[in-house]
Amino acid sequence: MVKSFLMLGQSNMAGRGFIHEVPPIYNERIQMLRNGRWQMMTEPINYDRPVSGISLAGSFADAWCHQNQEDTIGLIPCAEGGSTLDEWAVDEVLFKHAITEAKFAMQSSELAGILWHQGESDGMNGNYKVYYKKLLLIIDALRKELNAPGIPIVIGGLGDFLGKEGFGKSCTEYKFINQELQKFAFEQDNCYFVTASGLTSNPDGIHINANSQRKFGLRYFEAFSNKQHVLKPLVNEDELLNLRYARTHTKGEKIYIKSMDFALVKISYDEFVSQVMQINND
User: Fold this and answer.
1) Phi-psi bin for 81: left (phi > 0), alpha (psi -120 to 50), beta?
2) DSSP 49-69
3) pLDDT tens, 88-142?
4) N or C: which end of the chain has fewer CB within 10 A?
5) CA–CA distance from 65 to each of 31, 41, 56, 246 (Å)?
6) What's the pTM?
7) In 146-202, where does DSSP find H-type helix?
8) Beta carbons within 8 Å of 218's beta carbon, 6+ residues apart
9) Residue 222 half-sphere exposure, CB side, CA atoms within 13 Å?
10) Distance CA 192, CA 155 (A)
């Protein structure tokens, strides 16, 4: 059975971590919805821009698979870089698109949760004052439209690197947004807040870097798995990531990786055939 998760928010949910900075995650039990089909996950998962990269969803899904050995996880990418909370309002395109994708995914999966990360675009001009009310309308409408009144929603906080430099310099009210996000998660049923404390950014000062996205995904899974808020970094994040990176790949995953290497001209066709034959003979 595929257990699916809806990815909503802006660029730090879509992912802007540089792909070359972390080991890749290949797991045939992690699927992503693309072109109406469940396909084996390859990062970037949420291809909203040509610059999309590592997001929190990869390590979230890998941790989920480690705990759930019999099932498959499906990721439904709907995040949109730079989007404001107003653009997620119930009568706007992003909300309608997310509902459409989720309902389509639910034809072949069980919707198990919603992953939310948004707020950088609203971290200025006093937008935090109406953030809670607007978010409540969105979340209530999501649950109603998807006929999932008790579905868990994991809400991530904004990074402490904001408001200082680069593109993040204008996000001067991120602490107030965090207060609203945390208050929302504390007060609403089946909502769990995840801290971004200690996470670091790309040189642009606004996008969570690849290694921190991996850690963020572990925190999201901790919140979802235990149905509780994660208010400080996990004590063993590096150890957990190293264990996941060291996982032995299945035969299908090894062949998939070689197919990727061939498609990206990292190996020749003859090398590809030879290496696949070796995998099949092992």
Assistant:
1) beta
2) STT--B-THHHHHHHHHHH-S
3) 999 999 999 999 999 999 999 999 999 999 999 999 999 999 999 999 999 999 9
4) C
5) 11, 13, 15, 14
6) 0.97
7) 174-187
8) 59, 60, 63, 234, 237, 240, 241
9) 20
10) 6
